[in-house]
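Incident log entry.

Two folding requests arrived from the same account within the same minute. Monitoring flagged them as a possible duplicate submission, but the sequences differ. Recording both here for audit purposes.

Request one:
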Amino acid sequence: MSVVQPVFETPDDEIDQLANTLSRQIQKWAPEEGLTPTAVPGLELVRANSSLTNCIGSTVYDPSLCLIAQGSKRIWLGDREIDYGPLSCMVSAVHLPVLGKVTEASAERPYLGLKLAVDAQEVTALVLELGEGLGEMEERECAETACGLGRVQAEKGLVDALLRLVSLLDSPQDIRILAPLVRREIFYRALVGEIGLHMRKFAVADTQTHRISRVIAVLKDRFTEPLRVRELAAMVNMSESSLFHSFKQVTRMSPVQFQKKLRLHEARRLMLAEGMEAATASFRVGYGSPSHFSREYSRLFGVPPRTDVSKLRGELPQTARA
């Protein structure tokens, strides 16, 4: 497994104060554990009051920018393990099924973070407007930048802009006018900062990530159907071998593994949210054999479906999204 070691830098006094203020704001507007929608379009806040030692949550990341204000967590994406902590900024350029676990949180100092949905059209407009201003960014496509999930330590300007976006919750009458302006600043600061290479993937059409995002969109819409790699490769003008290689670079898993995780995540949701029996859920998501479904479910989530659902219904809300 590829392990990305944490790069949690000690913030200077000014950015430390920004982080503390952001933590207080998130704590105020997210009084309960779990993911909390807000009045600011696209902005969600997350909170956990304990590390839940044995609780690994599952989710599918949407294209988004996330920041941890306080606490830390670990994410598993395919064969990649990522630790991130205070002021870690993460960008998910495509939809990605991940496992997540809060590793540092307590009632006195809860895990606090935020998630901001990224609109590709907004980012594209900024890239076009900046033009040559982004030309000096080094174009490299190593394993780290090729992955659809990027992580850096947030810079002061970005933290300040995110704080101002969250602070708009104190003046709801200003949200309609000011939120779009602050969002634009956030995306600008992300584009010109260290996370810029990942942000640009939202805007550049003829890139590996963009092609794989088109494949992912089809898989998300048709995950219950048999996988047809040849058709997917033809759709994005790639050979089957190139698609397999590129898909694994971006998602850290093969198309078959990706589809399997989508199916299992959806089955889990159906059992939790709709009270569906495991066998019924397995057929709904495309499995032909309940026993095969149970084996793969246990392999991913660690326990059989019924045990897992019973445990989750007695536990706190998931906090794997940010």
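Request two (distinct sequence, not a duplicate):
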Amino acid sequence: MEILFFLFLGKPLWMWLVFMGLVVALLAFDLGVLHKDDHEIGVAESLKLSVMYLSLGLLFSGFIYWQMDTQATAEYLTAFVVEKTLAMDNIFLIAMIFAFFSIPREYQHRVLFWGILGVIILRGIMIGLGATIVEQYNWVLYIFAVFLILTGIKMLFMADKEHKIEENGLIRFLKRHMNVTEELHGNKFLIKKQDPSTGKLKRYATPLLLALIMIEIADLVFAVDSVPAVFTITTDPYIVYTSNIFAILGLRALYFALDAILHRFAYLKYALSVLLVFIGSKIFIAWAMGWEKFPPEWSLGITFVILGAGVVYSLRRTSSKQQT
């Protein structure tokens, strides 16, 4: 039993096992019970799932409080809210990828489910590397902070620019180096099909697999912003990883819930850019004020204010446009 108390990235192994066990149970319940058959997920079902994942993410803060302290709890909640909000930008991109490849709604959950498995592994690697670097070279946090400020400013000036999936070089690369069918084949990612030139059976990728690859790459790019953002909130790998994964677990349900009304949040990107600038600035504000750390409770409150203002502004602007 001593192995359960072995410290892994600063926390007892049993704490990591509890979290990973919960994640595995949720994924098994999702795929094995709720979605064992492909079907179109309606708004009502997706809203229930969103509430479930959101509630679990918030309830996990109770476990953080029980095992750690108030400051860690505030940091977890701030990181969870920031990750959840930054994921909104990812949802816009997911919707565009599905539209480009003409993926029917009944197969979209399958793509997102397998996508989340890749995310869990990739985020674990990135956060583990990040935690090791920050522990050895604390000044890296200042580089993260500057990067976030520059990213926020860039996002502010490029918020109106539309992504054009058809111009993406990765799609052209994949189609050039892989055998790809033009049409879907049910829920299959790969099929065996006769090569018209040789007559032999060859393995072909379907548009479903291309959509999965594009979503994984999109999340990797998204993580380049979001992981440093959380490291500027806390350097505790356990809080960074658990807040990341809980935020992303509900991403699929949130996508289906918001898919029909994504246009109402078109201006939320401005709030996200301000949020990134704020998160990046905290370390410099704390240094200028002579604080050991920017107060986590203030960080959580300011985050809610920025996001709340962004949501209200976006809903009002899109509402006035619909009326005109």
